[in-house]
## 1
Amino acid sequence: MRNVRLIARLDIKGPNLIKGIHLEGLRVIGSPAEHALRYYEQGIDELVYMDCVASLYGRNHLGDIVRAAAENIFVPMTVGGGIRSVDDATQILRAGADKVAVNTAAVANPKLITDIARRFGSQCMVLSIEAKQVGAGRWEVYTDNGRERTGLDVIDWVKQGVSMGAGEILLTSVDREGTRKGFDIDLIHAASAEVSVPIIASGGMGSPEDMVSVVRDGGADAVAMADILHYKRAGVGDIRAHASAAGLGVRAYEQA
Amino acid sequence: MSKPEITLIDYGVGNLLSVQRGLEHCGAEVVLTSDPEVVIAASRVVLPGVGAFANAMQALEERNLVPAIRELAKRGTPLLGICLGMQLLLDESEEFGLTSGLGLIPGRVVPIPTTTVAGDAQKIPHIGWNGLVPAEGRTDWRESVLTDNAPGEATYFVHSFMSVPADPAHRIADCFYGGYRVAAVIAKDQITACQFHPEKSGEVGLKILRRFVDA
């Protein structure tokens, strides 16, 4: 069985690790470096860094944070927030990122997906999508951390993104994000049924059992978690053990 | 004592920083080069790579690196291929038509099957952590780059194509994907290659890099 990936999502504002609800009302959690190292030592499978205010100002502060993390963290790192061009992607990859996540700029210019995929490979190009439910089985794409609506249908955009070269989809439910109410399983299922690239479920993980549900019923290939780790409601090892006991494939990992 | 020197071949594809950081973390002094003369004279070489096979071969050819890498094999210089850098070592690849490789390990690069052994649709690329097992006919992997690793330890894979060495004796370790055995580590003489990314596989991967750096 394919192993599900446990991904820690670190939302960043300036130098700080932050967390919001519905991607808003951002609260400072602490040092991104300390949290990232703790998750690495607990056996996290990947890290995702998101600069939450980058698209507002059209810039990305993550270079220094990523550069420092790459010194002592040896699992894949995806970095997003404010990446608007192949040059921006190049800069953040040079800082130590392995993949870039693009949202707002890809909506404005879908060709950017193809340009990044051609230059660095599809495995490097993660399409980040913020989804809000607008009806039964219908979700709309939002940008700028859930602030701006686009009129795009999420599932259509998923399919277009993959056809243009996206190698993974980071799919965040704005409705569930920060609520601890569990993932939007219908959303994840609707996307994973349509494309063959991995879907990373994001937004709403309140308990280890939520991860089991979104994998089993939603077909998620990976699960992004933030709040549950940041507030130490569970450790990476607890979540891994719970998933394994529930019959999900996870990476074998023994904490040193 | 001076640090062991590792020459990392930079041929303009992909992001070498992670590999460089991983090697440095394992105590190596890394020399980044695209100069064939530097490669030929090196004592220990890493061939990285991400992206498409044909593009990578073209990039090696443009820099006149193909004869240099073949010369390493003749001289018995230790060489580690990583990911696409592993696939390039074989005779040819079926990715986007047939493309010739470096031909240092007999065999061919083929697509990962799109269905599992059980006949279900299977996600491509193979992305994620997967456990290593000794290749068929092997009970262990002593005297390989995996000497310090235990069977079952997991490493990070990202690939859509897989290497199939012609001689099973060149297979050291496999992983299972969709029920199929996929070559994870192959070796011939002083050449070793990993399909996964040791530089992105936590302590498990660092043990492999350390072994290569210190051997």
Note: The helical segments of chain B are 17-25, 36-41, 53-62, 65-75, 84-87, 202-214.
## 2
Amino acid sequence: MDLKLQSLTKSIWVFHAACSPCNNCDIEILDLLTPRYDVERFGMVLVGSVRHADALLVTGVPNYKTAERIKKLYAQASKPCLVVAIGNCACGRIMFRESYNSPCNLDEIIPVDVYIPGCPPKPEAMIAGIVKLISKIKGVR
Amino acid sequence: MLKIIFNYLIFPGFLFSAFLGLMTSWLDRKITARIQWRKGPVWYQNFVDILKLFYKEIIIPTQAKLSFTLSPFLGLGAVTIVATILGRLLISPNESFLGDLIVVIYLLAIPAIAFILGASSCGNPLASVGASREIKMLLGYELPFILSILVVIIKAHSIKFNEIINQQMVSGSYIFSFSGAIAFLVAFLCAQAKLGFVPFDVSEAEQEIMGGVLIEYSGLLLAIFKLMRAILFYIMPILLIVLFMGKDLTLGFLILKYLLLVILVTLFKNTNPRLRIEQVLKFFWGYLSSLGIIAIILALLGL
């Protein structure tokens, strides 16, 4: 067993990076962290500072202002740091694709490890996405 | 010489107390989870967290000074020495030296000083807000904490742990006298503030100043601060037991009292909202200090 991989996947501290969302995905993320779904069973804790984070939960469409911020935020995180795109907007900008204030996709700014589509995605969908992410890191098919 | 190194690094010292401290932190998390009607983390969760932080990148801000890197080690060293003194005391009480109570009081102020040093040298404005709050907290809780320990000193006529324990074995635990009970209450609340737990966690309030004093720390340095907190969580109940409930210190009773205190701390943490900094200062300087002075007067009257 690889100790490094084990410890990284058993204790994922998440940082909630709202990148100009409409707040629906944020409310669903809060639902994910409440006692009903209890992700602390798997060692996932919400942290306040990006320096402590192992995963960035990014929601929303990057616009001209937040695109720079999300890039800086990713640079400030201590590596290895994963990026989880939550919601249709973060996955591929859907109806904001031709919008005047949206320069590019999220994955053109920072490397995204897992996409969780949905508008907003349910907490169950997020847990399924994180499970897929962990098995992807471990190299299991 | 080899025995001293063994004492400091392995048995009552670093490794042993780190293990027990992380287990106590797990107990705290598990009880919190059960109170909130959920399952909670597995027992090795804190060990995994520390191990993971060892593998992460250490980021040192460009404005940071040398004290940013050194202060976690300062804090960890201080709590390790306290853990060793208390551990040796419980194993063989005769090794106690004159004034070890005073040494422990001084060393217990160092973790807060380590937080202040580290946070104020990293150049982050939120960290400096956290550091200033930590300074105010330190000024706030040290006074009632020392007042409550003064009650023990007056009752035992000694500043040696050994004689404090012997006195309690002869005449019963101090917590069962009037002044002792009040002093225990004061010391318990000060211990809560020293641990940085919820009613008094203004210095690292995650929702308002994003981790406060810990905001710029990552990787190994953060792991060392977490370890320091864990060891502190293990030594504060032990200190309270030695000072106020020292009648029966056989292993079974020791573990029972320890678990009781940890559960009390956790329940107090889970049932109270965070106070603002001026409320904390009012609480410690107003109510608790007056309670401490009343306890001292009662102790001088012999109650």
Note: Chain A has one domain: 21-138.
